[in-house]
Amino acid sequence: MHRASLTLALFVGIAVICSCRSPAPETESSRAGGSMDQAAAAPTGGSRLVTRILFLELTDPCQCTKDRQEKTWGELMRAVEGTDIEVERVRWDTEGERAEAYAEKRPFTVIPVLYFLDGEGGLVDMIQGEATIDQIRKAAAGGSGQCSPGLDCQ
Predict the structure, then answer these.
(1) Is the pLDDT of residue 127 over 90?
(2) What CA–CA distance (Å, rounded) separates 27 from 139?
(3) Which of 96, 95, 76, 94 is nearest to 86 (CA)?
(4) How many CB atoms lie under 10 A from the CB of residue 97?
(5) Taking 50 as the threshold, does the pLDDT of residue 65 lie above it?
(6) Which domain holds residue 16?
(7) How many other C-beta atoms are found inside a 10 Å radius of the C-beta of residue 38?
(8) pTM for the whole thing?
(9) CB neighbours of 5 closer than 8 A, spacing ≥ 6?
(10) Minimal CB count within 10 Å: which of 45, 52, 71, 125?
């Protein structure tokens, strides 16, 4: 049943994605003042360094989603160049169990999705949709003001 609801959410997301609109990327920290409660948005335990970023994508998306994925992947690679941050690429439609583990941490509506994780695998931040290098660097700073080693968070 749980897998069915996640699959339904994916199909709804694909319908929105394939309308070829390019919504502004949304991060968990940018929504802190919105409907998400403050405790869920705030980092816990003081500063949390991002040590891993998971890039969630589709294997064979429509062209507009493919363009967003490629642009965001390029920006991600530029953002982490020269850092110790590990990047993992997961395909939602072919690696279901691995992908679901992250979707359960924080559900998404737009692909690609970037999950920013600490050394223990805890979610620090998330970006949905097309993202720029500056947005990625800001999220990788973990909302704590502390920057991961080698990351230019200016």
Answers:
(1) yes
(2) 8
(3) 76
(4) 7
(5) yes
(6) 2-140
(7) 8
(8) 0.68
(9) none
(10) 45
| Number of domains forming the structure of the chain | 1
Is residue 145 domain-resident?
Answer: no
Residue-wise pLDDT tens digits, 10-48: 444 544 444 444 444 444 444 433 222 222 333 444 457
Q: What CATH number is associated with residue 65? A: 3.40.30.10
Segment 77-96, tens digit of pLDDT: 999 999 999 999 999 999 88
Q: What are the distances in angstroms from CA 135 to CA 16, 103, 125, 139?
A: 22, 20, 11, 6
Helix, strand or coil for residue 105? helix
Residue 124: inside a domain, yes or no?
yes
Q: Residue 45 domain-assigned?
A: yes
Does some domain include residue 57? yes
Residues 9 and 110: beta-carbon distance below 8 Å: no
